[in-house]
Write a structure and sequence with these properties.
CATH architecture: Alpha-Beta Complex
Number of helices: 13
Order of helices and strands: EEEHEHEHHHEHEHEEHHHHHEH
CATH topology: Spore Coat Polysaccharide Biosynthesis Protein SpsA, Chain A
Low-confidence stretches: none
Largest sheet: 8 strands, mixed
Mean pLDDT: 89
Distance between the termini: 23 Å
Length: 315
């Protein structure tokens, strides 16, 4: 039995539009991004049902012939993800009502969440992520990709690329890669915090840094101190790298290990959390702005070939 996949591709409050358009509907390589994603999910043997949340009429035009179940978008990312999960439950589709019996029956159900703006997602990367998600031991697993893996997608002399922000740890620098495996009913009490973190994910913006610090303060006594320290260490190391001081950045980030991050996030969310690394790169290449979209469009074929070489090596 496979895993259900929920693609959150709405264009509400937490989403960024590109060229005044839902990113999932932009064409890359002559095909809308959302179709790239759905076709990849359909080709993955580990995926069962596919639920896509977004503007229904427009999505019907581009993926209406696939086996994806299209759900009209709600007002926010939180509502989109939640509604997508509920629509993966047969009982809820028959009768849209949340009952104690429904929660009890599907309390342990985990699903794959992914965004609608990753046209370079591959079957091999999905399989790599899924196979390393030990859902017997964890309730929420977030995918990451190393800076080394992403380096060939970055700008180089004579060719364009996408410069991607990373967080720095003792083990290396990583970027969140848009793949999440989670048990929504288990995370019910902490889902608001998870979504706020996602909403403030653009940490180059000072306003989002301020909002993130405010959310840390709201955690209350016993959690503020170590959470704030790790957060500031992450910010300082990223800032040092940005101004050309990578040696100092490595010294600062030595105090931040992946294990510490996992343990802290588990404590803050009140659940069992883990980071899982994928080594192909496509899932981390999302479309954040017009410049990145133009670069991705120009480099698309080259990067598809690069990913194919990596997946062949992985096999």
């Amino acid at each position: 039995m496979g895993i259900d996949a929920i693609v959150t591709a709405g264009d509400g409050r937490a989403a960024r539009r590109v060229f005044k358009k839902n990113k999932a509907l932009l064409d890359v390589g002559g095909v809308p991004i959302i179709r790239h994603i759905v076709e990849t999910l359909q080709a993955c043997g580990s995926i069962d049902n596919i639920v896509v949340v977004g503007p229904r009429d427009r999505f019907e035009e581009v993926i209406g012939d696939t086996r994806a179940h299209i759900v009209p978008q709600k007002r926010s990312l939180a509502e989109n993800g939640w509604e997508g999960f509920l629509q993966s439950l047969p009982e809820y589709r028959d009768k849209p009502e949340i009952t104690g019996a429904l929660i009890e029956k599907h309390y342990a159900k985990h699903v794959l969440f992914l965004s609608g703006d990753i046209p370079l997602l591959s079957v091999e990367e999905l399989e790599q992520f899924i196979s390393n998600c030990d859902m017997d031991r964890y309730d929420y697993i977030a995918g990451i990709t190393s800076e080394e893996t992403l380096r060939e997608f970055g700008p180089r002399k004579g060719r364009p690329g996408i410069k991607m922000a990373t967080f720095h740890t003792r083990e290396g620098n990583f970027r969140q890669n848009n793949l999440h495996m989670a048990r929504p009913f288990v995370l019910l009490n902490s889902i608001d915090l998870v979504l706020k973190v996602y909403e403030y994910r653009y940490q180059k913006e000072l306003m989002n840094i301020g909002r993130a610090i405010l959310e840390i303060v709201r955690l209350g006594p016993g959690k503020i101190g170590k959470t704030l320290v790790l957060y500031l260490l992450l910010q300082i190391s990223a800032g040092l790298t940005a101004v050309g001081l990578p040696g100092l950045a490595r010294m600062v980030s030595y105090a931040v290990s992946r294990h510490k991050l996992e343990r802290l996030i588990s404590e803050v969310l009140g659940t069992r959390f883990r980071l899982v690394e994928t080594t192909i790169g496509g899932a981390a290449l999302d479309v954040d702005n017009e410049k990145d979209f133009m670069v991705l469009s120009v480099m698309y074929r080259d990067w598809v070939n690069l990913i194919n070489r990596r997946t062949h090596h992985l096999a």
